[in-house]
Amino acid sequence: MKIFRIASATCALAVLLLAGAGTVARADAAPSASAAELKDAASKAPTTSTLAAGDPGGAITGTVSDVPVSDAKAGLTLSDVANQVGQNKIGINFTWTLLCGFLVMFMQAGFAMVESGLCRVKNANHTYMMNFFVYGCGLFAYWILGFAIQMGGAAGSGNLGGLQPLASEHTLSLFGKTWGVFGQTGMFLSGHSYDVGVMVIFLFQMVFMDTALTIVTGACAERWKFLTFSVSSVLMGAITYPLFANWAWGGGWLAQLGSNMGLGKGYADFAGSGVVHAVGGVTALACALIVGPRIGKFNRDGSANAILGHDISAVLIGCFILAFGWFGFNPGSTLGASGAGCLRIGSVAVNTMLAGCTGTFGALLYMWVMKGKPDASMSANGLLAGLVAITAPSGFVNPISSGIIGLIAGVLVCVSVAFVENTLKIDDPVGAISVHGACGLFGVISVGLFADGKSNYGGAWNGVTGSVTGLFYGDASQLVAQLVGVSTLVGFVFGFSYALNWVLDIFLGQRVSAESEVAGLDLPEMGQLGYPEFVFTPEPAFMTATPQAAVA
Amino acid sequence: MAATKSQGRSFSLFIVGITAAAIGVASFSSGIGKLALIGGLVMLAASFGLFLKIKPEEGEVADKGQPAVMRVAGVLAAFLGWVIVLFGLNLSTTVSGRMVTTIIGIAVSLVGALALLPAAANKNPIWKA
User: Could you say which of A108, A250, A323, B99 has the lowest number of CB atoms within 10 Å?
Assistant: First the structure.
């Protein structure tokens, strides 16, 4: 009996073992369908000898054999393919964002040409140099501090891999809600922020910041001391711009108006009518008020004299450079060309073009009808006005709305220039306050009016499910959010910029000496004429007379 | 007088100072970071002292000055309008109520920015001389 029990147990154990081995053997012998397909595809990939014969049509370059394999023994797996898909998405988005950033950087050349062209020849070097050096001042300030303030807490952009290192936002608890105030990660792009995704967003955001800084140089041209301009630009790039940009784009309180207070999708500014242009425009207003008008700009009775620029061709070519760069400014703000609504880049680009076109028409026709001539400088400003105004709504509106927005902006800029000069008695040589300030604010408001609710950037905006929708399409609360943004620009940004530059005026002095101003800033400030071989035509007497009582 | 070597030196000190201060903030947890912050702030202060010292070298400026009281009033009005908007968002919970308080706040800010401050700038302008 004992032997029988042992034999039975042994036989049972043997049967069990054989069954298990069979099960394992069945698993090994029948791989999943996907693994089999991958293996089949890998076996059919062009061989090295086939590729060595050349591929003029591109039909056999870029195949399954280009997908990296994580485990050579296991061969190509679904996991390998999925990882490559993710890499491709992020790679496409990196490339798109960087190329658009390069286009925006090139806009610096456009601004330089427009501003210098609208100034007198004796100030050409100085005006060009301000636009040249503002790039360095802004980039430096942004690298050491500004980027951290703006984007230090901006983690979550799925288009660029998540930007997880940027996960430190200083918040404030108020009225039972948590509000983002400024970021804290990313100074010097060191530590955790030494990251491929962070590098891309830094470059893209930096060129936007520099656009805001360069706007101010236009309003203060022909009398702004180069030293004070340099210090002012560093501080604007380090503090003023990044603060508002954090509130709008970096996870700050303006963007949270939707999630915290039910105001639409929060303050929505697709590419920066408010963040870039209005910040630049209101700062330009603040600085122009402090610097004061050019000698000879206004007569004793308060009437204004037209001080003509020296190179209208530079102005118009500069405008085309700006319009070209704007194709990076607006469409690039999707931060990608793959996923999360990024295929709207074509719509955004067309909206941008249309608004620039109708902006030109608005200004040109206004001047032609009201003043009798299709004025070149105002037509140029009309193009820019349309482009500035469409910048915020470009990702949320349809082409017809874009045309309307541009047209209104083109007329608005003409009215605003006259208002600033004749009513406020503020001297703005290039119209920066009107183009970027007035039309920038109009662009912000336009989102709250014209956003049609058809866009879809990952199913949400600023953390609120749904699409940005304006008053004309059924959501008045979005307009309220936009107006809160306007208030922040006019109230906080303007006030802060004025106070900051007032302090700089006390310590440094904003304005050059009357002697330098009359002679032209090129020699006293820069040590060299912009056009040393030109023979200058004497200016009218009113431009060179320096009232003794006018000097401090 | 315009651009001078003194301006170059003072601006260089400003740049070094702000860089050191930023390094200090970035590495504040370490002892060296705290030292860098203090050193940076000292250099910044010194640069502003230099700016003030060399300011008279510019010469006579075409600017007769603006009344400080009006300027302060203008800046405060601009800020006040913004504060009105922020508190208005919590005073009312309806869209129309918030719209009204926001528009009122913007109007107050515009009084400061487009009325008071330009009036201050045009109180003693050079073109009235």
Answer: B99
Distance from the Cα of A334 to chain B's closest Cα (Å) equals: 29
Of the partner residues A227, A295, A495, the one whose CB lies closest to the CB of residue B62: A295
Helices and strands of chain B, counted as H and E runs:
5, 0
**How do residues A137-188 score in pLDDT, each as one tens digit?**
999 999 999 999 999 998 887 899 989 999 899 999 988 899 999 999 999 9
Q: How do residues A381-422 score in pLDDT, each as one tens digit?
A: 999 999 999 999 999 999 999 999 999 999 999 999 999 999
A478 Cβ contact partners less than 8 Å away, ≥ 6 residues apart: A263, A264, A265, A268, A447, A448, A451, A468, A469, A470, A471
Identify residue B27 by its one-letter amino acid code.
S
> Cα(A182)–Cα(A185) distance, rounded to whole angstroms?
10
- Contact at CB, A293 and B127, closer than 8 angstroms: yes
Query: Is the CB of residue B70 less than 8 Å away from at least one CB of chain A?
Result: no
Under 8 Å between Cβ of A271 and A334: no
CATH class, range A85-161+186-526: mainly alpha
Query: Do residues A153 and A185 make contact, with C-beta atoms less than 8 angstroms apart?
Result: yes
Find the CB nearest A525 among B2, B102, B117.
Answer: B2
DSSP A161-199: TB-TT---EEEEEETTEEEEEEE-S-GGG-GGG--HHHH
Alpha carbon A42 to chain centroid, angstroms: 43
* Chain A residues with CB-CB distance to B52 below 8 A: 507-508
Domain boundaries, chain A: 85-161+186-526
Q: Tell me the count of A-B CB pairs closer than 8 A.
A: 196
d(CA A103, CA A440): 20
- pLDDT of A323-361, one tens digit each? 999 999 999 999 999 987 899 999 999 999 999 999 999
pLDDT beyond 80 at A255: yes
Q: Which two tokens stand for residue A325?
A: 């760069």
Name the pLDDT band for A540 (thresholds 50, 70, 90).
confident
User: Which residue in B50, B90, B124, B126 has the most chain A C-beta atoms within 10 A of its own C-beta, making it the best mutation to test that interface?
Assistant: B126
* Average pLDDT of chain A, as a whole number: 92
d(CA A12, CA B4): 101
> Which tokens is A445 given?
């408001």
Residue A10: both structure tokens together? 């042994």
Nearest to B128 among A226, A300, A507 (CB): A300
∠ CA(A497), CA(A447), CA(A397), 5° rounding?
A: 140
pLDDT at A26 over 50: no
Judge whether B16 is closer than 8 Å to chain A, CB to CB: no
Q: Give the model's pLDDT for residue A40.
A: 86
Residue of B53, B84, B99, B127 to mutate for A, most A C-beta atoms under 10 A: B127
